[in-house]
């Protein structure tokens, strides 16, 4: 069996949190609805997770699923059905609602991927689904920290004095997708609480239950659009990949 054939007894549903307001982007419309080459970042992210046929459905958590401003879910050019649901007021709450919906639809596993990460390479997607469905601990994409790390008493503004240099060995930057047994992830988010500030990703919720998710090699280009300069990078990569296809 090749790694992209459906695994027996596995039903992987993707959950895409897309209900944020993108305050750090300071743009008039939420970043997931910014367009590059005529497509929204959300559409690129949906197409990216659908590149592996083991994903059987995509569930997108948005602020208002009935809004006429949303692209019609049938217009996404993917083989899998796309369903909008109502998100929450934290990312974890949006994910929780998506995972609840996925479990109700028979998902054995959920793959959570940020709408704001449109440059996910297919090879990384396949790797994280392979590992996440093979281990009961689940798996996440991550990249090793490249830069020197400093701790200061502020996380914004400049001219703060360095308190400490932090050894970057063994430190990783977590990305999405993150793939887990669906019911376990739901339990983890509910136990930890979807408004718990420590719940910054799905791996944290699984660790809360005692699982040790596996780190799988991610990709530098799988950056999350957070600030305007991220959007500039992502837009140039997306346009370059469209012209070389
Ligand atoms: N998200 C969500 N529901 C929320 C908050 C965030 O579905 N209540 C989604 C965002 O739409 C995004 C992903 O979670 O796709 C990652 O979150 P983040 O980068 O923090 O996006 P925003 O919260 O929109 O941005 P900011 O924190 O700058 O306001
Ligand atoms: Mg946010």
Automatic annotation (TrEMBL):
The keyword Transit peptide belongs to this UniProt entry's keyword annotation:
no
Which residues does the annotation list for site: Positions MEP for the nucleophilic attack?
A: 168, 224
Keywords (A to Z) from UniProt: Isoprene biosynthesis, Nucleotidyltransferase, Transferase
GO MF assignments: 2-C-methyl-D-erythritol 4-phosphate cytidylyltransferase activity
Q: Which reaction does it catalyse?
A: 2-C-methyl-D-erythritol 4-phosphate + CTP + H(+) = 4-CDP-2-C-methyl-D-erythritol + diphosphate
Q: Where is this site: Transition state stabilizer?
A: 24, 31
CDD domains linked to this entry: CDP-ME_synthetase (cd02516)
A Pfam family annotated for this chain is IspD
Pathway stated in the Swiss-Prot or TrEMBL entry: Isoprenoid biosynthesis; isopentenyl diphosphate biosynthesis via DXP pathway; isopentenyl diphosphate from 1-deoxy-D-xylulose 5-phosphate: step 2/6
Per the record, the domain of life is Bacteria
PROSITE patterns given in the database record: ISPD
- Is this entry keyworded NAD? no
InterPro entries recorded:
IspD, IspD/TarI, IspD/TarI_cytidylyltransf_bact, ISPD_synthase_CS, Nucleotide-diphossugar_trans
Gene Ontology terms describing biological process: isopentenyl diphosphate biosynthetic process, methylerythritol 4-phosphate pathway
The UniProt record lists the EC number as: 2.7.7.60
Function, as annotated: Catalyzes the formation of 4-diphosphocytidyl-2-C-methyl-D-erythritol from CTP and 2-C-methyl-D-erythritol 4-phosphate (MEP).
Q: Which family does it belong to?
A: Belongs to the IspD/TarI cytidylyltransferase family. IspD subfamily.
Q: Which PANTHER family match?
A: 2-C-METHYL-D-ERYTHRITOL 4-PHOSPHATE CYTIDYLYLTRANSFERASE, CHLOROPLASTIC
Task: Please identify the protein, giving its name as recorded.
Answer: 2-C-methyl-D-erythritol 4-phosphate cytidylyltransferase
Instruction: Supply the gene name.
Output: ispD
